[in-house]
Amino acid sequence: MFLRLLTVLLLSSSALRAQEGPSFDLEAYEVHLDAEKEGQRVFRYAIKNSGSSTAPAESYRVFFKVNGKMMSFDNKTNPIKPGQTIIYTSPEKIPANQPGKKLKYNLIIHTRDANSRNNKKKGEIIL
User: Which residues form the signal peptide (predicted)?
Assistant: First the structure.
């Protein structure tokens, strides 16, 4: 009897915790390549909080890859208020004199938020 009661209590408490997930929702929002400056171009990408609460500092990590190469990684992240967008700039620069070159990017947010389906953004930019 005691084991049955203990099992019921453990299952019900874990079910309640599963329902209490975070109410922030980080979205891999936008990626663009800046105009040529001094023969170089740089990627900028935006992370948006579409949820109803603030995403705490360091509750997420941001990865940005181009053609499979890691261009930037950020784990010292700032809080993001609901509706706020933060723009990151990749420290790696792309030579601009490569007309027609395809740049396939992948923006990934590692976090536990309300909607993990919008935590990745893939695309392609042609120089």
Answer: 1-18
Say if residues 49 and 80 touch (Cβ distance below 8 Å).
yes
Q: Which pTM does this prediction carry?
A: 0.80
Residue 9 in any domain: the answer is no
Q: CA-CA distances (angstroms) from residue 83 to 71, 79, 100, 124?
A: 26, 12, 36, 26
Integer CA distances (angstroms), 125 to 26, 60, 104, in order: 23, 26, 6
Instruction: Answer whether residue 120 shows pLDDT above 80.
Output: yes
CATH of the domain at 98: 2.60.40.10
Overall number of domains in the chain: 1
Nearest to 36 by CA among 114, 96, 79: 96
Q: What is the pLDDT of residues 34-68, one digit of tens each?
A: 988 888 999 999 999 999 999 999 999 999 999 99
